[in-house]
Amino acid sequence: MKEDPFPIFLQLNALVDNSEVSFLFIIAGFVFILFLMFLSALVSGSEVSFFSLDSKNLINLAQIDARKEHRIRRLLMHPNRLLATILIANNFINVAIIVFFYYFSNELMIHYGIISSPGIAFLIQVVLITFLLVLLGEITPKVYAKQNAVKFSSKTSGFIWVLQSIFHPLSSILLFATSFIDDRVKRKSSSVSMEEISQAIELTEDLEESDEDRRILKSIVEFGNIDVKEIMKPRTDVVAIEKDAPYKEVLNTVISSSFSRIPIYEKTFDSIKGVLYIKDLLPFIEDEDLDWLSLCHQPMFVPETKKINELLKEFQERKIHLAIVVDEYGGTSGIITLEDILEEIVGDIVDEFDDDGKLYSQLDRSTFVFEAKTSLNDFLKIVNGKHDYFDNLKGDTDTIAGLILESTGYLPKISDEIDFPPYKFIIESVDERKINRVKVVIS
Question: How far apart are CA 272 and CA 300, in angstroms?
Fold first, then answer.
């Protein structure tokens, strides 16, 4: 009699004293292992099926078998205990499979001289039992249970109920031991990432929710990923006043622009010296000799790459509504206002002084005409595109015109087509210096 690494089987070896009985004993052992494998499949599949059920599934099950539906609901009332029971049972069964498989395969391979090397026999045992457990005890039952959650859970609910009764003491100890860790993990993981929120919003697209509500939620999620440069008003569209301008000219500019805050520059727009608040002029509206420059406020400068969520906090802290956007060389790129930032969440804010002319017009469901100066951020919102669609294409540009110039490397002509699937840009108006208007066809 050879020495056995599992003493529990020594008595079994003593009962088997001839080859015929030993062979039948080994066959019976492998049949028992298959039975354990079947139990492992049931338990593994139950984990997926039970936690895949929703209220609709249970309502449908109640119409077929109210008793099973009631039992499943009682099991799901304590999901942590249910999961602990399944994991404990699955581990017990899998350990039993490994132990019995080692013993009976060892008897078959070495006792009968099929494989003489214990090392090779052990390697074959490890590979074979791992393959069988993963395929038959994990993957296959879980795939089936996922696709047939109601049927599988109803068939195994009685079996799991019995296991929960058997392993109740062990599961109670396990739950008690892990409760402290669980509480710590919950406190640390209470925050949800923006990506998870974005995915959750996308999952609600088929639900009967307001498109406007969903758009606002998406805007909030994307809010922290937007740079100042993407939503600023470019310098070519900014109304500004030269510091040496006479007071009468200042008043005319204020009246014609209808803006409440106007940047003041010296010689060139790259040299901003202050910001004039129109409300400060009201007490001196009749004073023709007013030193209006003394009323200007210190300008706030921000880099193009600053995130707008950070800028919003600075606006709130400093009680400022306008900032001058500067590039990496210190030149003025444009301006950004509190209204520009808020519009990224709530959409366009139009007051009585705003120009009613839109930056785009929609010809049909898939055809638009855009002003080429429209920002890519606004463009993607209007056509319901992904906010980061052009991130790898646009380079340092942030407008439709800039994207086209970055892509082509030259100033295109009227009717030229530039493809960024699914968007086709067709040049409609261009002059010697810039692109003015673009038709966009979405395929």
Answer: 10
Strand arrangement of the beta sheet that strand 423-430 belongs to: 360-364, 367-371, 435-442, 423-430, 417-420
Residues 6+ apart with CB under 8 A from 443: 366, 421, 422, 424
Q: What are 120-179's pLDDT values in tens digits? A: 777 888 888 889 889 988 899 999 998 888 889 888 999 999 999 999 888 888 888 777
Q: Give, in order, the Cα–Cα distances in Å from 184 to each of 87, 147, 179, 190, 321.
A: 22, 35, 9, 10, 42
Helix (H) or strand (E) holding 25: helix 19-50
Q: For residue 235, which phi and psi values (nearest 5 degrees)? A: -60, -30
| Residue pair 437/369 in contact by the 8 Å Cβ criterion | yes
Domains and their CATH numbers in the chain: 7-188 (no CATH), 194-220 (no CATH), 226-346 (3.10.580.10), 360-442 (3.30.465.10)
Cα 177 versus chain centre, distance: 33
What is the C-alpha separation between 379 and 418, in angstroms, rounded?
Answer: 16
CA dist 216 and 358 (Å) reads 20
**Tokens at residue 68, please?**
């099973």
What is the SS3 assignment for 280-343?
A: HHHHHCCCCCCCHHHHCECCCEEECCCEHHHHHHHHHHHCCCEEEEECCCCCEEEEEEHHHHHH
The token pair at 59 is: 């309502």
Chain Cα centroid distance, residue 421: 23
Q: What is the largest CA-CA distance in the chain?
A: 123
Question: Which whole number is the average pLDDT over 308-337?
Answer: 92
Q: Are 234 and 373 in contact (CB under 8 A)?
A: yes
Give the 3-state secondary structure of residue 272: strand
Q: How far apart are CA 306 and CA 300, in angstroms?
A: 13
- SS3 state at 114: coil
What is the tens place of the pLDDT at every residue in 23-76? 787 888 889 999 999 999 999 999 898 888 877 777 777 777 888 888 888 888
C-alpha span between 98 and 36 (Å, rounded): 10
Query: Residue 423's CB: how many other CB atoms inside 10 A?
Result: 20
Assess contact for 360 and 368: CB atoms under 8 A.
yes
Partners of 423 in the beta sheet?
420, 442
